[in-house]
């Protein structure tokens, strides 16, 4: 989960930092990158609320045990949805692209989202008090992760995950096998699917090798 959160943070930061500096010739691709990021983050939190959290409640027998996490989702939901609506309006040319407008809308949810991302990890770690035989948390997380990943487009959303995952995070190679996919599948996703909308992924924080790279548009 910490790795997923790191991907979310990196992808949103890449948008916030680059938005004011994207030239008109790249704004269409940047809008698609923003929309793909929004959809990916949205699906992650939807998967938690519809799959992971209910499964944890059922296994522990404690109704509302994940309620604090749900309330945190609700705290940033309005601002996050407003940003998503604006992105779609820009994509459909109902609104003009504006880097400052993008930042203003992101300011409306980023603080609450950051709080959630920081506090969700300890809330999950607190579940260690339940024995594995009662709460198979690793299995539940893997099942939810597979369901979410399986629902993402291989050419429109999965690259957000793959190209914002820093394989050097916490040590060289420690997380190189995340997400847990067979090597041939990951190779195809990175070297074939990620090239389908290559102009979108020019804004991501990592290259196809998973190593961090300098953002493309940071201004002077």
UniProtKB/TrEMBL annotation:
Organism superkingdom: Eukaryota
UniProt xrefs under InterPro entries: Dimeric_xanthone_biosynth, Hemerythrin-like
Organism, as annotated: Westerdykella ornata
Hemerythrin-like domain mapped to chain residues: 5-120
Name the UniProt record assigns to this protein: Hemerythrin-like domain-containing protein
